[in-house]
Specification:
The protein is built from 19 helices and 6 strands. The chain is of the alpha/beta class. The protein folds into 2 domains: about 250 residues, no CATH class; about 170 residues, no CATH class. The protein has a 4-stranded mixed β-sheet with strand order 2-1-3-4. About 0% of the residues have low confidence.
Length: about 475
């Protein structure tokens, strides 16, 4: 009963603070405000691009085809096609409506860019032109003092070997010199137009119809459909890949926020001598257990808030088929294991030191180990049954985080590994609580020089 009183005190002292309330509820609020404000920011018109693109065509056959690519109509057509392709890819990856106002704003911005478009003109230069001399005009396009009326934004040098080649030889590359401030999309459009003109020139030289060849080589599109027990659903690759990572980060954040709070409050109570007053009313074991249970409730609040938001989003966008209900049960078990392991570490370190600076020295090696699932979450997700992922599933304290990823991975995990990893996790929690209780009993009233890991192991053997 005394441990529950300590737990309630720990829970209230953490949750009923402005810092905790703002920290939990402010990020979603900022996200909503950002999504609402993003469309207004995305509607700003991009800077206009006007100038010349010089071309030194040493093949003698590319320039006529290139002039056709640089007509205002073709420039606008290419930009609109780019926008449509980008919109199609985004809509395939993200469910309809899930992007919300931000995606709609991005689409409008892309359409605005396509509508404005750059004003580029081609300048035919002699095949034997002095390229070094012409290149000196390019920096003037960025100089306020020397800015000409029709600046030279880019210079393309196309060798004859880009179109024709000897038997067995490879085609040569063309060179494009640009100003450092040239818009990336404009630069890419210029490069693509030149590449297209060169390829068309090669096809014409071989006696082929360029339009027919391009039509034959165009990549076919697919409409990916997932078959579920509830019927057919459109496949959303991005959501399917990011959902397991979202579970991992959700557990990570809730566990470490509560664990960090446990570490901080323990150090503060010890350094302020409040710990001695508490120990006059409860035993060290009751105090430690109460603090851990109280912070577990804090972690549960954080997990509940953000998980609730996620569940609502899945229901609204009809994505509940992406989550296996049994996985939710397993993930809840792994959350408890992860919390108790981290909480025991934090309680042991907090009771052993008197300052937060001293705790950081002991936390460093532990954090290096615990960050492994965060760094390698994509390889684990893509190959959940690899030897590396399987071994990590039975190595505390990273095993709960690894199993959360594996359950949402691209392959089904053998069922026996789930109860086996849970059993290993529960056993590791028992060992961690036993060791933490011994360290807590000695360290909570110990002051002076901070201990190292060897000292902590000695306390475990002594107590």
């Amino acid at each position: 009963m005394k441990a529950l009183h300590v737990a309630w005190r720990e829970f209230c002292s953490t949750v009923l603070t402005k810092g905790f309330i703002l920290g939990v509820f402010l990020p979603p609020l900022i996200g909503v405000i950002g999504l609402m404000a993003l469309p207004m920011l995305m509607n700003q018109k991009p800077p206009k691009t006007e100038g010349r693109v010089g071309v030194v065509d040493r093949s003698g056959v590319v320039m006529p085809l290139l002039e056709r690519e640089f007509t205002p109509e073709r420039l606008q057509e290419r930009r609109r096609r780019t926008v449509e392709e980008a919109k199609a890819k985004a809509q395939e990856a993200v469910p309809t409506g899930m992007g919300g106002p931000s995606m709609e704003g991005a689409f409008r911005q892309m359409e605005t860019i396509a509508g404005e478009g750059p004003k580029l003109s081609l300048q035919r230069l002699p095949a034997d032109a002095d390229v070094e001399a012409i290149k000196k005009d390019i920096p003037k396009a960025t100089s306020r003092a020397e800015l000409p009326k029709d600046p030279l934004l880019a210079l393309a040098v196309i060798p004859a070997e880009s179109v024709s080649r000897a038997d067995g030889a490879s085609y040569e590359k063309f060179t494009l010199f640009t100003t450092p401030t040239l818009d990336v999309e404009v630069k890419g459009d210029v490069e693509n137009a030149i590449e297209r003109a060169i390829v068309d020139a090669r096809l014409v030289r071989e006696g082929l119809d360029a339009s027919k060849v391009r039509a034959l080589l165009s990549t076919p599109r697919s409409d990916s459909i997932t078959i579920t027990q509830g019927g057919e659903r459109k496949t959303h690759v991005a959501v399917q890949m990011l959902l397991p990572g979202a579970f991992l980060f959700l557990i990570w954040i809730s566990v470490f926020v509560a664990g960090q709070s446990l570490l901080t409050t323990t150090i503060e109570e010890k350094s302020n001598r409040v710990m001695e007053v508490l120990l006059s009313a409860v035993s060290p074991m009751q105090l430690m257990l109460g603090k851990i249970i109280g912070q577990m409730a804090v972690a549960g609040v954080i997990l509940g808030v953000y998980a609730g938001i996620g569940v609502v989003a899945l229901v609204v966008f009809a994505l509940t088929h992406l989550v296996n209900p049994w996985n939710i049960i397993w993930i809840a078990g792994y959350f408890l294991i992860a919390f108790f392991l981290i909480a025991c570490m934090m309680a042991a370190i907090g009771s052993a030191v008197s300052e937060l600076r001293e705790a950081q020295a002991l936390m460093g090696p532990i954090m290096v180990v615990l960050i492994i699932p965060m760094v390698l979450w994509m390889p684990i997700l893509r190959n959940p049954n690899s030897l590396f992922a399987t071994v990590l599933s039975f190595v505390p304290p990273v095993s709960p985080f690894v199993m959360v990823l594996r359950l949402g991975g691209s392959e089904r995990v053998d069922f026996w590994q789930i109860p086996a990893s849970l059993a290993v996790g529960v056993l590791s929690v028992v060992v961690a609580c036993w060791a933490t209780a011994k360290i807590f009993r000695i360290g909570v009233l110990m002051y002076g020089k901070p201990p190292n890991f060897a000292t902590l192991l000695r306390w475990i053997r002594m107590a």
